[in-house]
């Protein structure tokens, strides 16, 4: 009989009435585990536990918080192989990518172990005689973290670590499709000595668990990564509840290839950005905007490289692209392949592969126009639209013609074009001669427009969201 993986509330593994099977998208016969499917009542228990524990955690020495985060990072580092295999089975990333993500989670905890010791403030001379002014940062209280399935350990890490470093108590609600990595993170934090109630894990459906977190008055802030549609609803609910909110949502990221580009470098960057991680990244290069003089040569090279990509078992070291995360996601991807053809694109690839599991060949939509649905709506799969433009000016205009603004890129050998694009791109992150996907943990992550709302994630700037600013005046006369 398969053991039930329980929610983690107030330092205890607590069962609930519901449960769900977690199966690999690469092999439906691979049962990863049976995971608790919590209820709104479980959320209330977690909030009450977090409220009771948070004051002591906030009052504790910064060194204590740092030590817990450092130990968690050490434990994650020791479990990179285990976590990587679990992640590859659960989400479908290749084993190499999965191990890299597990390593990133460890690095994030180590980084924020340092930030726990650095809580800078300011002491300023007041404009009034004999008055001192001091600006400090304090924790918010209880924060709810709602994370997606595409980075099932990295995103929980980059939300949880700064929240704990700042002195908050946390309730983590992972994606329903990928609970296993979050469950292992809860085990690691418990082993690292995180006090009971400071970190809580409640697994289950977003419609119930997420809604309960967002609408409970005991939760001071919500950090959400997921779809734009769900994010907009969370923003409205948080506004009604006067909660602090941070949203990371969709992207329709452009990669410009100019006539000055090294085509081999451009193909490598676009291949990585569009298709690796099965295209299941909010920073994926989903619009390839190519200047006319190099369009045909670029498409020929990219199509050949795409066709040569090996799609298969994520645990096979030779695999370059694993499965789509679920049958539902695959069905949506295949709908967009049909839409691309209906809109007039020439479609290369994109078929469901004839093998067990949710496998799809990568796809290029040639002859796309930026007004098409496949060039404006986030697909979140291994699909990229190729848009031909006359020159650099048109390329920049097309790149910015989207509701999203997360990541953008340019491949060019011209310093002038690179500098101009960095200045004029309406995106939160700009890449030059690099894939649009792939970021460092010590600098801010986030976008503009419909991609992001609220404070930035990662780096020191992440601490801004998880703290409240207090200005204190003291009469010293």
UniProtKB/TrEMBL annotation:
CDD domains: ALDH_KGSADH-YcbD. InterPro entries: Ald_DH/histidinol_DH (IPR016161), Ald_DH_C (IPR016163), Ald_DH_CS_CYS (IPR016160), Ald_DH_CS_GLU (IPR029510), Ald_DH_N (IPR016162), Aldehyde_DH_dom (IPR015590). The keyword Oxidoreductase applies. Residues 19-471 form the Aldehyde dehydrogenase domain. Keywords: Oxidoreductase. The active site is at residue 248. PROSITE patterns: ALDEHYDE_DEHYDR_CYS, ALDEHYDE_DEHYDR_GLU. GO terms for molecular function: oxidoreductase activity, acting on the aldehyde or oxo group of donors, NAD or NADP as acceptor. Coiled coil: none annotated. Belongs to the aldehyde dehydrogenase family. This is Dehydrogenase.
């Amino acid at each position: 009989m398969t053991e039930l993986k329980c929610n983690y509330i107030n330092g205890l593994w607590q069962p609930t009435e519901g449960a769900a099977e977690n199966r690999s998208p690469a092999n439906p016969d691979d049962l990863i585990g049976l995971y608790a499917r919590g209820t709104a009542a479980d959320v209330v228990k977690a909030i009450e536990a977090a409220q009771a524990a948070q004051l002591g955690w906030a009052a504790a020495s910064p060194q204590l918080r740092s030590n817990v985060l450092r130990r968690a990072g050490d434990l994650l580092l020791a479990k990179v192989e285990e976590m990587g295999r679990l992640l590859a089975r659960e989400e479908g990333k290749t084993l190499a990518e999965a191990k890299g993500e597990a390593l990133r989670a460890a690095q994030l905890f180590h980084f924020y172990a340092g930030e726990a010791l650095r809580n800078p403030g300011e002491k300023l001379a007041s404009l009034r005689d004999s008055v001192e002014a001091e600006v400090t940062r304090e924790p918010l209280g209880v924060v709810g973290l709602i994370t997606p399935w595409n980075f099932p350990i990295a995103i929980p890490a980059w939300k949880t670590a700064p929240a704990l470093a700042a002195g908050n108590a946390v309730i983590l609600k992972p994606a329903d499709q990928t609970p296993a990595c979050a469950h292992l993170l809860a085990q690691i934090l418990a082993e690292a000595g995180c006090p009971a109630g400071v970190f809580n894990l409640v697994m289950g459906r977003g419609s119930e668990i997420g809604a309960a977190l967002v609408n409970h008055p005991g939760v001071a802030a919500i950090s959400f990564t997921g779809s734009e549609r769900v994010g907009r609803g969370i923003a409205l609910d948080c506004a009604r509840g006067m909660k602090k909110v941070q949203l990371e949502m969709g992207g329709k990221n452009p990669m410009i290839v100019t006539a000055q580009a090294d085509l081999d470098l451009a193909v490598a960057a676009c291949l990585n950005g569009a298709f690796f991680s099965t295209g299941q990244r909010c920073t994926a290069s989903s619009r390839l905007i190519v200047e006319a003089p190099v369009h045909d040569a670029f498409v020929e090279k990219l199509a050949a490289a795409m066709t040569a990509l090996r799609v298969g078992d994520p645990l096979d070291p030779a695999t370059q692209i694993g499965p789509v995360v679920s049958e539902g996601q695959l069905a949506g991807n295949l709908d967009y392949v049909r839409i691309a053809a209906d809109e007039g694109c020439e479609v290369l690839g994109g078929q469901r592969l004839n093998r067990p599991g949710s496998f799809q060949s990568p796809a290029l939509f040639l002859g796309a126009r930026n007004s098409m649905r496949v060039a404006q709506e986030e697909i979140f799969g291994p699909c990229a639209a190729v848009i031909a433009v006359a020159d650099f000016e048109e390329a920049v205009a097309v790149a910015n013609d989207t509701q999203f603004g997360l990541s953008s890129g340019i491949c060019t050998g011209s310093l002038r074009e690179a500098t101009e694009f960095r200045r004029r791109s309406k995106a939160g992150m700009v890449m030059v001669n690099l894939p649009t996907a792939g970021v460092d943990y010590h600098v801010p992550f986030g976008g503009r427009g419909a991609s992001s709302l609220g404070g930035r994630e990662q780096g020191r700037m992440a601490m801004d969201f998880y703290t409240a600013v207090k200005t204190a005046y003291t009469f010293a006369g």
